[in-house]
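Lecture 7 notes: from sequence to structure.

We start with a single chain of 145 residues. Read the sequence below before looking at the structure.
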Amino acid sequence: MGWESGSGDAQARGADTNLSLTRLALALEERFALRPRAYAFARVSPGWLRGTASLDDQAVAAPLRTTFSTFSFDASAGAAARLTPRASRVACWLVGDAGYGWAPDQHLALAPALPAADHDKAGATTLADLAPRGVFFRFALALAF
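Now the structure, written as tokens:
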């Protein structure tokens, strides 16, 4: 099981913006023992991606926001090397992998965060589609005991 989260802030025409993505995934892995202290692996990870986007424009009565949820899929290959002696009760591993993550395009239509009674008073602002996918590289330290 894996949990990944990230966010970014920026300015767009003088307005503060934010994009946050959180992913929960199940990692299915096949390992190939190269040596007693090293192995290679191939991994596929189907998961669920949740995102939020916001734009705080001072010209609008309330911040513009949207959320979305969708499935995602990652595939990667990598290797791991044990850094501690084999006799140690706690094993420290250096793990690295590279792969490609994919999720469907998300249509971003940001609407003002207004009470339900006021939703008809303001329209949505449509932005370009978000394509949450691409190549990734990952390095980690893992403990096993």
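Residues 2-144 form one domain. Keep this in mind for problem set 3.
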